[in-house]
């Protein structure tokens, strides 16, 4: 099994969890959901192809999601707090898997030096 096969599935899982957070909020608040979901959707085709640059951008997006979920983990509503902690754990696990998959793939060939 390819090491990058888990990354698109994890991206979809984060999309579903952030969508569930959006539906559980009492006052709507679709902007944080859109800020998380649109970049994930943009990197999803590249993750399915195993593109190295898409995996790098996915790492940046995961770090943003970690920061947002840490902020949301202080929410007074218990359901939103638990969803934020779940998203945080999923994002950290995906980031670890992303680092593992980047190590197991051969690096991009460098240009030949001119003599």
Structure, described:
This protein is mostly helical and 115 residues long. The protein has one domain (3-104). Helix content is 76%, strand content 0%. It is built from 4 helices and no strands. Helix 2 (30-49) runs antiparallel to helix 3 (52-72). The N and C termini lie far apart (41 Å). The mean pLDDT is 81.
Classify the oligomer. single chain
Radius of gyration: 16 Å
Question: In whole angstroms, how far apart are the ends?
Answer: 41 Å
**What characterizes the major β-sheet?**
none
Count of helical segments? 4
What string gives the helices and strands in order? HHHH
For the record, the count of structural domains works out to 1
Shape: elongated
Number of strands: 0
* Average pLDDT, all residues: 81
Strand content: under 5%
Query: Residue share in helices?
Result: over 70%
Detail the poorly predicted runs: none
Summing up helix and strand content along with how strands pair, one would put the structural category as mainly alpha
Give structural attributes.
115 residues; mainly alpha; 76% helix; elongated
Topology, element by element:
Elements: H1 6-24, H2 30-49, H3 52-72, H4 78-104
Question: What is the gist of this entry?
Answer:
This protein has 115 residues and is an all-alpha fold.
